[in-house]
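Appendix B. Raw example, untouched.
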Amino acid sequence: MFTPLADLFLPPTCALCHGRALDSSALFCGACEGSLSRRPSAACGTCGIPMSAASEGQDRCRRCLEQPPSFDGARAPFLYLAGVRNAVHAFKYRHRL
């Protein structure tokens, strides 16, 4: 209800470039979101780490098979590379997001 008014006075900002975010529920602007590397569909069913084409047909990576982690599963929409790492660090260490 008040979101358009709040966006007018406190516009949502991109967690990476600090430009204007797509909308109040978005963390990134269009340019920054487009630059993030999405997680590939071939990933370990337990830890979510990307798996190579050579692992086709396997649902878990070698590390999870040899030493299963103490959790059931983990997923992330993006790879933890520069843009995502910067956003996580801004939130975690500088309390900005």
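End of appendix B.
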